Amino acid sequence: MSKKILVTGGAGFIGSAVVRYIIENTQDSVVNVDKLTYAGNLESLETVENSPRYAFEQVDICDAKALAHVFEHHQPDAVMHLAAESHVDRSIDGPAAFIETNIVGTYTLLEVARAYWNDLSNEKKSAFRFHHISTDEVYGDLEGTEDLFTETTPYAPSSPYSASKASSDHLVRAWLRTYGLPTIVTNCSNNYGPFHFPEKLIPLMILNALEGKPLPVYGNGQQIRDWLFVEDHARALYKVVTEGKIGETYNIGGHNEKANIDVVRTICSLLEEFVPNKPMGVTKYEDLITYVKDRPGHDVRYAIDATKIGRELGWKPQETFESGIRKTVEWYLNNKKWWSRVLDGSYSRERLGNQ
User: Fold this and answer.
1) 161 assigned to active site
2) Where in the numbering of this chain does the NAD(P)-binding domain appear (predicted)?
3) Residue 348: what pLDDT?
4) Which of 93, 165, 189, 224 has the maximum number of C-beta atoms within 10 A of its C-beta?
5) CA 272, 276, 280, 284 torsion: positive or negative?
6) Does residue 144 sit in helix, strand or coil?
7) Residue 343: inside a domain
8) CATH of the domain at 78
9) Active-site residue 137, yes or no?
10) What gap in Å lies between CA 211 and CA 234, rounded to an integer?
């Protein structure tokens, strides 16, 4: 039986991948609730925006009244909560937005969802799910080279961003324990892939290299991340919201640990293959690598143990890092219209002009 799923942050990078996955691969309907901040881009949803199973509501998750109207009007069977401020550097420069969206916004959404859930029939009430999508950064970083984050790793966030996400995770679990709201939490590793906002590492390196600009790498570039292709993540999230167990946490990782510098070198190597005609003055793309001062509180290593979701829900990533990064570089080379409109701000200016 098909469901109606309310996705917050559905115009963002991971959220749009989830929306596209649901519309293109299931019979379920999606209500996309997004405030459309700088990182929200409806152009990432052009392939599904005309589907009769897709609806968009421009609403801030901190606006309880508007949210309640969305729930009342659309009557969702589940919530997938992805709306968040998520850029670590931005959280260091200006933490207030992270406190507001990630903590206050999650609280507001929980309360609106709880009021809605309380009024459902017993059958709909028992089927309802509130799925909160979080990050591995809540765990802090790993000291040893063999350690992995599990679902029971203690929280030790390092940045204002990860602290705000840790707080939202605790709120979600408290609403289950105190009020019985049927919640599930997932914590994922670093995502990459098509439609990634260009301030993030991988798209930034691709686009800077194409323009012959420096490729800024923090510190010595040895920070290790577990890379997860965004479309693999979308499949996992749908598995969790439809088959996951209430009260459980599922870690989602790509089984692809890479040092940042190796990621950048891989991108350079692929660009040598795909775009041998380099910008003026560039002999090799790798020559553009520039080491810059490390950011405050920079975590050294993240790595996810995704055994549980594989064992209990039968999910595993389909992409290796090598196959996923190749697809990603090719996507950026073939979709200049999308990222050039992000870089020059026209995607957002036109949106503001239409309001």
Assistant:
1) yes
2) 6-328
3) 67
4) 165
5) positive
6) coil
7) no
8) 3.40.50.720
9) yes
10) 31
Contacts of 225 (CB under 8 A, 6+ apart): 189, 190, 257, 258, 260, 263, 301, 302
Range of the domain at 33: 4-196+228-254+300-319
Alpha-helix residue ranges (DSSP H) falling in the chain = 13-25, 64-74, 88-93, 96-98, 106-118, 122-127, 160-179, 201-210, 230-243, 260-274, 307-313, 321-334, 336-343, 346-353
Whole-angstrom distance, CA of residue 1 vs CA of residue 3: 7
Task: State how many domains the chain has.
Answer: 1
CB 343 within 8 A of CB 175: no
Catalytic residue selected from 34, 136, 141, 257: 136
Compute the distance between CA of residue 226 and CA of residue 252 in angstroms, rounded to an integer: 10
The closest alpha carbon to 33, from 143, 108, 115, 124, belongs to 108
Task: Select which of 28, 77, 85, 137 is catalytic.
Answer: 137
Select from 125, 143, 302, 289 the least CA-distant residue to 228. 302
For residue 179, CA distances in Å to 117, 119, 316 come to: 11, 14, 33
For the chain, which ranges sit under pLDDT 50?
A: 351-355
For residue 175, being part of any structural domain is answered with yes
Q: What pLDDT, on a 0 to 100 scale, did the predictor assign at position 198?
A: 87
| 27 closest CA partner among 238, 233, 243 | 238
**Dist CA 313 CA 305 (whole Å):** 14
- Using one digit for the tens of pLDDT, what is the confidence trace for 84-112? 987 777 888 889 999 999 999 999 999 99
Query: Tokens at residue 322, please?
Result: 């090598």
The encoded tokens of residue 232 equal 């693999």
CA distances from 305 to 187, 225, 247, 248, 253 (A): 11, 13, 19, 15, 7
